[in-house]
Amino acid sequence: MRQPLSRLRAFFTLWISLALAGCACTTGATSALGYYWQSVRGHMQLMHAAEPIDQWIARTDIQPALRTRLQLAQRARAFAVTELGLPDNASYRRYADLKRPAAVWNVVAAPPYALTLHTWCFPVTGCIGYRGYFTEADAQAEAAELAAQGLEVEVYGVPAYSTLGYMNWAGGDPLLSTFIAWPEGDFVRLLFHELAHQVVYAKDDTLFNESFATAVERIGIAQWLSTQSTPEARDAFATSEARRSAFRALTRATRARLAEVYEQKETLALDGKALAAMKTEAMQQFRADYAALRARWLQPQDGSAPQATTAQVAGYDRWVAKANNASFAAQAAYDELVPAFEALFEREGRDWTRFYDAVRQLTQAPRPQRHDSLRALLPATNKVQ
């Protein structure tokens, strides 16, 4: 399973890090400076490791599979520009082997009886519902501090992040070893997602930004697969996408159920014991429903091969085992408003330029108003009552 891809924005140069040190944060000045320094240092190390794709392809000491994938990346990058109207700039024209499983590790947190993400605020990006670290140990330390405050927390590895185009002057965001070997459909869609963040970015609105980028990747990958890919890649993507869709439906239903439970804390003034029991019941039902879904994926049906292997569902297993309010709240940012953006794309005649202009127009409105405008476009089945 591809983890919700929450992204580390900003911290591009030392002067930005020092400017950020003056912001209102949850940590003291000393630890804040340490955080910004690790962000700058980690990003600069990543940029230093990157080399132009053409140079990698010309090397004689790389595996043929890597050379083939880098050539695919070049084709996908050109397609992003010519067919999706995504930026034609320096990003994703270099490659870096990070020799680690993730680009960064993100920390997310939420209260025990709410699906509202804890936020950190920065001048460049505004307030965002995650904090990224270039080492897992630092992320776990931050998570422990938040847990000590009574918050539910999650730490997860992120395969890529966007600098929103601010680093194109220095070579742009590179392709990374953390996702280069993904199946074609997943690899290409991630490329489209990250480039979308360079088209439109609304300050203080993670839900808007991630839902927009996810909509671009979904529409874009459908176009890519239908015109540029092989039948084998299309079939593989369709199978994995069916699993993702089923899992998204399950988590969306669970979020709605948890939201109803937490709403009763206010409307019915439930005591803590009753509220905890209702939350536990909802989480137990979620895990039972997932177990049934997982069994269907792994068991052959009508004499055909199973829909998935245990390796292919391992990511889902890990997510479900750790799932809490932070997990559900973070995932909502990546799918809640996606159908609305897809409807907006259709409304604009499936014209990418008009679509991007319409999305930019939404960023001019206050956040509640832009969310209301998008929710008005949601199909009835996606509207949370």
Structural category is mainly alpha
Number of domains: 2
Helix content: 55-70%
Extended strand count: 8
Walkthrough of the structure:
It is a single chain. With 385 residues, the chain is mainly α. It has 2 domains: 14-180, no CATH class; 246-382, no CATH class. The protein has 14 helices and 8 strands. The strands form 3 sheets. A 3-stranded mixed beta sheet has the order 1-2-8. A 3-stranded antiparallel beta sheet has the order 6-3-7. The longest helix is centred in the middle third of the chain and has 37 residues, at 231-267. Mean pLDDT is 88; it is low at 1-30.
Offer a quick outline of the entry:
This protein is mostly helical and 385 residues long. It has helices at 14-20, 29-49, 53-58, 64-84, 136-148, 184-196, 206-228, 231-267, 272-298, 310-322, 325-335, 338-347, 352-363, 367-375, and strands at residues 51-52, 94-96, 104-110, 120-122, 126-128, 131-133, 152-158, 175-176. The protein has a 3-stranded mixed beta sheet. A 3-stranded antiparallel beta sheet has the order 6-3-7.
Secondary-structure map with pairings?
Elements: H1 14-20, H2 29-49, E1 51-52, H3 53-58, H4 64-84, E2 94-96, E3 104-110, E4 120-122, E5 126-128, E6 131-133, H5 136-148, E7 152-158, E8 175-176, H6 184-196, H7 206-228, H8 231-267, H9 272-298, H10 310-322, H11 325-335, H12 338-347, H13 352-363, H14 367-375
Parallel strand pairs: 2-8
Antiparallel strand pairs: 1-2, 3-6, 3-7, 4-5
Helix pairs in contact: 1-2, 4-6, 6-7, 7-11, 7-12, 8-9, 8-11, 9-10, 12-13
